[in-house]
Structures are given as C-alpha cells and as structure tokens.
Amino acid sequence: MADTVDEYLAQFDGEVRARLETMRDVVRAAAPEAVESMAYGMPAYKLDKKPLVYFAGFDKHVGFYATPNGHEAFAEDFARYKQGKGSVQFPHSEPLPTDLVRRVVEFRIGSVRG
Q1: Domains of the chain listed by start with CATH number
Q2: Which string of b and e fits 57-72 if b means at least 16 CB within 10 Å?
Q3: % residues pLDDT > 70 (the chain)
Q4: Coil, helix or strand for 61?
Q5: Which pTM value belongs to this model?
Q6: In this structure, which long-range contacts are made by residues 8-13, counting pairs with CB atoms below 8 Å and at least 24 apart in sequence?
Q7: Fewer Cβ within 10 Å of end Cβ, the chain: N or C?
Q8: Measuring CA to CA, which residue among 9, 45, 6, 51 is closest to residue 26?
C-alpha cells in the first residue's frame, strides 16, 4: 500500500494517472492550505485537521469523496453520475468535471471553516 500520494499515483499509468494528477492539481489549487496525506488507501486532504476531500483511481472511474456534506450540497450536479454512500464516480469515458470538483472543494473549505 502506498504511503504517499506520489507513491499512490505511481501505481497508475496513462489516462487514469493523468486524471488522478488533474484531480490532485484541482484540489491543491482550490485548497492550497490543505494538508495532503494518505487515508483509507487513497489521497486525502485535511484542512485545520478536519477531512476536506478524498479521491481514488479505479479501472473505469475516479472516485471522489466529499463527506460529510459535499454530496448533499451538490446532489443536483452529481445526479448524472453513479454514486455510493458518500462517493461519486467520474467515469473515464467522460471529461473530468474539474470545475465541479473545484466548487465542491471550495464548499467543503467553507464547511470546515464555518
């Protein structure tokens, strides 16, 4: 299991890796003060020691986790994607919705900081 986000990303190649690196770039740009680490086996970002967002790579999609309240707030935006409890799947067959990811991260920053 990867100990760092760089090690995690190194497990992937091609388009999947590019998409994961884009996710990382979007999160870092939207939340430059967030601390990057690994949690639950995936890249994790914390702000003020509180969870902000997570993402993970899979064969057919990028999983995005914006718990506890990011999913409710963006239910309409996420409706077109397959979802699980606290997760949304961005399929590799479609462009990565980077603007949506940025807006969710910004929303989560506001939630964490109250």
Answers
A1: 5-113 (3.90.1150.200)
A2: beeebbbbbbeeebbe
A3: 100
A4: strand
A5: 0.95
A6: 8/38, 8/42, 8/43, 9/43, 11/57, 12/57
A7: C
A8: 45
